[in-house]
Amino acid sequence: MGDERAKLAIEMESYRLKKYIGAYTTASGRVDNLIFTAGVGEMIDIICDKVLEGLDILGIKHNPEKNRLARTRNAELDISADDSSVKIFIIPTDEELVFVEDVVALLEGTYDIHTNFKYTFKEEDYKNLMR
Question: Which domains, from first to last, does the chain contain?
Fold first, then answer.
C-alpha cells in the first residue's frame, strides 16, 4: 500500500509541475530555460524525468542519463538533450542556510529586507562544506 501511495504522490507532483510549465509557456509565449533546484529538483531524478516526459511539443527535451548523473549538489549542470530548443539546468541551492541566517538575524535584531541582507553564500569565497 505504501508503494502505491508513493507512486501516486510522484504522479500528482509531476503532473502539477508539468501543468505549470505548460501554463507559463503559453502565458509568456516561450521558454528559454527550465531550472530544477532545491531538494526535489536537485536530488530526485524520477520527478524531473516524469515532469519533462512529453514536453517535446514545447521544445523541451532532456537527457535522462545526464539527469541521473546530476545529483552532485556541487555544480550547475545542463541536462538538456542535444536537440532541445530549451536549456534545462539543475542548480544547487542552500535554502537551509538562508533559513538559519534569517532566523538568527531576526532574533538578534539585525535583519534587513532580503534585498539588503548580507548572506554568507553571497561571499566570493563561500563553500558549502556539507556538499
Answer: 2-91 (3.30.420.40), 94-131 (no CATH)
